[in-house]
Amino acid sequence: DTFYVVRVDMAGRGDPVLSLEGLRQLAHDVAARGVSSIEGNLVVDGSYFDNVTEPPHFNEQPKEVAAFRAPVASFGVNRSSYTVTVLGQPEGKTRVTVEPAIDYLKLTKDEVTSVTEGRTRLRLEAKPRAGSLGLELTGTIRQGAGSWDLRRRVDDPARFAAEVFLRALADNGVKLGRRTVSYGVTPPAAKLLAAHDSTTLAEVLRTMNKYSDNYVAESVMKTLGAETKAAPNATWADGVAAIKGRLAELGVTGFRSENGSGLFASTEVSAKQLVTLLAAAHKDYRIGPDLVASLPTGGYDGHLARRFKGKPAMGRVRAKTGTLDRVKSLAGYAGIDSGHVVAFAILVNDVPAGQRGTVNIVADEMVEALVAYLAN
Q1: Which residue, 156, 194, 188, is CA-closest to 172?
Q2: How many helices (H) and strands (E) does the chain have?
Q3: Which residues of 28-44 are buried (b: 16+ CB within 10 A; e: fewer)?
Q4: pTM value?
Q5: Please, what is the average pLDDT of the chain?
Q6: 45 φ, ψ to 5°?
Q7: Rounded Cα gap, residues 65 and 55, in angstroms
Q8: 227: region left, alpha or beta (phi > 0 left; psi from -120 to 50 alpha)
Q9: How far is CA 159 from the centre of its chain?
């Protein structure tokens, strides 16, 4: 028998780490509930956040299409980005794949040549088309250089996620009467067919901090606003208000933080303010252990994997890096044992061009001195 559903509602609640596989599993679960055919539209309920998907200050670099600048919606997947992979092969041939493989992403131009001499130079342009995004790929790739991944943001995160879900439904044998997407609020009497739960907040923050994930940071900030506001259509301003309110309770005031990632000209904070916050978090057993575990470990993982390696501070530093055009920072904890832990923050402004590496060396030496002091 065919089970008809007038519409399928997708209610997003801001899971920043929802993967392609997670959304495909959700489609599998819908099919497993006996749904074999759908009449009508797929309705996306994105009312947990407002409809402003571009974080504050992201417009300061409007031509940047890399995934680190991806927009944020309460229903988004794969960090609102896609990947085009190019592999050079003999006789000038190449192999190009697009992930996710959905009709919404169409490779409309493939003019990449595999070469034996010269550098790899690839150019990918995305051009909106009727109901899809046209991808135009040109350039050269050097044979033997391995595969090259070009990861790009999408401009409409909810539409992108909906298209991934529609393809997943079809792949699971669910017949679609119309492959159209609309937007609305889930009716109170709607029947729940399947659900996806995000990982825990501790795991989300670990993903965010280990590799400086801007998309996750922006999503977390807006979620803070939604949960504090306890009402739909949360804004980044709501997230800012939630952060300022909590930090004021700790005596941290006078800072500026206008988006979640710290990208562009969005943040002004002092080393003292950071250390005050880090110290307060470490004393709170509900927060401290998970925060420390989320930070990169010197000499082992994240953005500190290559720093402190083979030195006395290796494994004794848990800290977050920060990099802007002319700013470098390192803030976190250093310790010898659980009874000798200190919070530190090193902020360097007006870094001259080409001197970021030098700043890292100086910061590492400062932390090494701190660890040596604690060991005495």
Answers
A1: 194
A2: 8, 16
A3: bebbeeebeebeebbbb
A4: 0.93
A5: 93
A6: -100, 100
A7: 14
A8: alpha
A9: 17
